[in-house]
Amino acid sequence: MIYIENYIGGKLSPPASSNYLDNYEPATGKVYSQIPDSGDADVSQAMAAAARAYPSWSEQSHAHRHDVMMRIADGIAARHEEFSQAESRDTGKPISLARHIDIPRAVANFKFFATAAIHYASESHYMPEQPAINYTLRRPLGVVGCISPWNLPLYLLTWKIAPAMATGNTVIAKPSEVTPMTAYLLAQVCQEAGLPDGVLNIVHGTGPRAGEAIVTHPDIKAISFTGGTATGAHIASITAPRFLKTSLELGGKNPTIVFSDCDYEDALSTSVRAAFANQGQICLCGSRVYVERSIYNQFRDDFVAKARKLIPADPSLDSTRIGSLVSAQHHAKVLQHIAVAREEDGKILCGGDEAKLSGDLAGGYYLQPTVIEDLGLDCRTIQEEIFGPVVTLTPFDSEEDLLAQANGVRYGLSASIWTSDLKRAHRVAAAVDAGIVWINCWLLRDLRTPFGGMKDSGMGREGGWEAMRFFTEPKNVCIKY
Ligand code: NAD
């Protein structure tokens, strides 16, 4: 049994309470490690360590911070296979996804923000009529909290802590209690890379205990949170009255929009990938597919044929394209959504049931990719985030009809549009409620661009300079001469 430890003040240590939580391997449904059940005492220790580290880290040269962070990136890259296996084992995602997306992206996050630290410039404005110069000092905030979810555990954790550290803050991070393993490996890499003690502290445990202890700590200077919309609303209710800088990256119910003039094969294969990658557990997955009526029947049949070929299998195998869902609770929740779709008279075109594997995998949380049609905009299946391998197909008759349906939900994270009409592509991209829009592609992203959602998908933006700005306090200085 592996006992995961907190990383506080540069040391790996057990929780103050000595209490642990079971960590399940979703592929088998068996417990394979123990996670610290941390609470106030651990967060207080982490705060003390982070506060001690802050004066020196915040005053370090940009080049120094860059060098340390590049060593962390190299340390993850050097243990790429170990990280990939841990990521796949913790989440149930296919190992190929961990190897080719999650772990390389965590390395890229550290490299990107390490170099951003040395290239980041603040603004200056010359007023010739005075004359005067305004310049903006951007200082780190202090000790900041970073809370991340289970679906892309290392990728999303590093996406927050890297800009926080690059800008000179010290950090208390809490990974999801469902997927703690890669954060534990990251702590070891930070030690090997010579990260000064207390710059990054990782406290494991549940949201209500460890997470909330971070959010409510009186000395925390900002919260960067990624997770569900209900949790985000709860966190905002704590941070808003304290005017605490808060960034919330929340749920989605993203439309994939297919016009009849699209590149058919590309639209088809990418929309299937967008629906089912990571078992549909990526916040950017396209879970509502809208298809222009003239090609609807053909597209539906081809989509279903491709979905049927995605057979859930052992996540640790190279050949696997669909693994298991992340936990028993989440598996039950997704099945419950499918039951609701049936009650709503949705027509299940494929899937709709759990998938049973054999041997060691018999207790795993597998689900057949599920495609549903004949559901109206008001249905819960269309309105609510399911966050699993469940997708709806709906025809549309006009751009107006399409936009009414695509925008008729509370979420606004991302959208993808498939068309070869350039004018229409730009028109629909501007009109669709989404913080991120892909035209004739999905999940392509330059890390310099702002990342985040509209409406109930969040508040604030991450990525690139947006993250560097979030983790700094701007102070304008005007000098007349
Ligand atoms: P969640 O909200 O249950 O948990 C997210 C994190 O918050 C976990 O670390 C959890 O322990 C912590 N937490 C829970 N309650 C807390 C509290 N009261 N105080 C402080 N922390 C608390 O979400 P999840 O189930 O882990 O992740 C799935 C959700 O995340 C989905 O809704 C998905 O769309 C969303 N997500 C959004 C993005 C994005 O960028 N917009 C990216 C990935 C996932």
What topology does this entry show?
Blueprint: E1 2-3, E2 6-8, E3 11-13, E4 20-25, E5 30-36, H1 40-59, H2 62-78, H3 80-91, H4 95-119, E6 124-127, E7 132-140, E8 143-147, H5 153-166, E9 170-174, H6 181-193, E10 200-202, H7 207-215, E11 222-226, H8 229-239, E12 245-249, E13 254-258, H9 264-276, E14 286-292, H10 293-308, H11 328-343, E15 347-350, E16 370-373, H12 380-383, E17 390-396, H13 399-406, E18 411-412, E19 414-418, H14 422-431, E20 436-439, E21 454-455, E22 458-459, H15 464-470, E23 472-480
Parallel strand pairs: 1-5, 8-9, 8-11, 9-10, 11-12, 13-14, 13-19, 14-17, 16-17, 19-20
Antiparallel strand pairs: 2-3, 4-5, 6-7, 7-23, 12-22, 15-16, 18-21
Helix pairs in contact: 1-7, 2-4, 2-6, 3-4, 4-5, 9-10
Explain what the structure shows.
A 7-stranded mixed sheet has the order 15-16-17-14-13-19-20, sandwiched between helices. Strands 10-9-8-11-12-22 form a 6-stranded mixed sheet, sandwiched between helices. Strands 1-5-4 form a 3-stranded mixed sheet, with helices on one face. Helix 4 runs parallel beside helix 5 (153-166) and helix 9 (264-276) crosses helix 10 (293-308). The radius of gyration is 23 Å and the shape is globular. The chain has helices spanning 40-59, 62-78, 80-91, 95-119, 153-166, 181-193, 207-215, 229-239, 264-276, 293-308, 328-343, 380-383, 399-406, 422-431, 464-470, and strands spanning 2-3, 6-8, 11-13, 20-25, 30-36, 124-127, 132-140, 143-147, 170-174, 200-202, 222-226, 245-249, 254-258, 286-292, 347-350, 370-373, 390-396, 411-412, 414-418, 436-439, 454-455, 458-459, 472-480. The protein is α/β, with parallel strands linked by helices and 481 residues long. It has 2 domains: 2-250 and 457-480, Aldehyde Dehydrogenase, Chain A, domain 1; 255-448, Aldehyde Dehydrogenase, Chain A, domain 2. The model has no long low-confidence stretch (mean pLDDT 97). The longest helix is centred in the first third of the chain and has 25 residues, at 95-119. The site of nicotinamide-adenine-dinucleotide (NAD) has 32 residues, from helix 7 and helix 8.
